[in-house]
Prior knowledge:
alpha/beta; six-stranded mixed sheet; 29% strand; disordered N terminus
Amino acid sequence: xxxxxxxxxxxxxxxxxxxxxxxxxxxxxxxxxxxxxxxxxxxxxxxxxxxxxxxxxxxxxxxxxxxxxxxxxxxxxxxxxxxxxxxxxxxxxxxxxxxxxxxxxxxxxxxxxxxxxxxxxxxxxxxxxxxxxxxxxxxxxxxxxxxxxxxxxxxxxxxxxxxxxxxxxxxxxxxxxxxxxxxxxxxxxxxxxxxxxxxxxxxxxxxxxxxxxxxxxxxxxxxxxxxxxxxxxxxxxxxxxxxxxxxxxxxxxxxxxxxxxxxxxxxxxxxxxxxxxxxxxxxxxxxxxxxxxxxxxxxxxxxxxxxxxxxxxxxxxxxxxxxxxxxxxxxxxxxxxxxxxxxxxxxxxxxxxxxxxxxxxxxxxxxxxxxxxxxxxxxxxxxxxxxxxxxxxxxxxxxxxxxxxxxxxxxxxxxxxxxxxxxxxxxxxxxxxxxxxxxxxxxxxxxxxxxxxxxxxxxxxxxxxxxxxxxxxxxxxxxxxxxxxxxxxxxxxxxxxxxxxx
Length: 502
């Protein structure tokens, strides 16, 4: 019999026994529940959060005998509270639910690999890693590559993979990320040799990587994250699922498995059905809500302090800050440029995380700013040539059609960009103080320490001279708070700093 810990130590799930081996005439039904890109304990607008997730798990477990729960990565960051405890609270919450598989997402490395190791040591659930290697070639943190779980007489072979883009978009240091396709082929072959009837890749990879794995056909089921999409694909052989973000939606994949004779061989046949579970339809679990209420109270004491007012509306939704000039991006870029007295500022839209709208007249609090800037990044000041500034901007606009986090929000300049042109040739004009950017002139540039060390593909910034290095730098969020507080009222608008020529 298998038991799994629930919300409090005294509460243990009943009825979670795994079935005995069936006869061939009796198909077995197994349910997988998938969540991904879930780092906030609190709900928002009646969806998501820990208490509603637990309610979904309890309801789904009550309706079936055999349930496996999978988290496809991004848990410890970039939530508001993670800026204080580096994600420890999310590990504590996840320890209280029956997770069968967890894979590391890129945001698990936002605070560096040593913090990731700390969080791994605190976890009491299986974490799989088939493609992240230490500099000496060992598996990162000595994590297992795979595991086999037997349910109802059928063996499920799971392995975990993380996008190699983590090297650019997070802070994993010297870790190596092996090619997902090559790893998937090798892991699938090894798991089948170990007797796995169904091979499941749990991946935190982008959609193009997912599609390549889907078309490769080495695995049976792909449970993925990273894009924040609600997506189900099934071609009759391979199924692929992604469940949005923040536990707003959970996908139930219900599998029917059977054994059939084909001549002298016995084959496993399976078929899936899918349900997308909307957390808004579930009442928060009371025990789980008591835990999140205590976390919320802890935050409120520190953060619910008014700092000023915006007389203009602000929009930090993901598609806005990663695809166009945003008033809130202007506010943040202006704040850090003024704070360090730089000519220009560049911040990555992917570092702005609130994903919300503020109406004109909204009173801004410390919580608001730290929600928007949860990574604990610092503002550095660089000396760059105009040619290097242009190279940085070209990188920023190189993946704008994909909604990549490198999209730049800027201050001190006006940029005309043509997204129809090839990546690397999209910036048509840059004006600084009304004059064209001079490729030979030295400009001072404020940015965050993540970009300054080459994050999000901004490798050109590593060639700049550091005028304020990370050791001497101050928190971006504190500088934005000070900027708003000193003015009492701010009115950032979309004013043509980024002009699309399409």
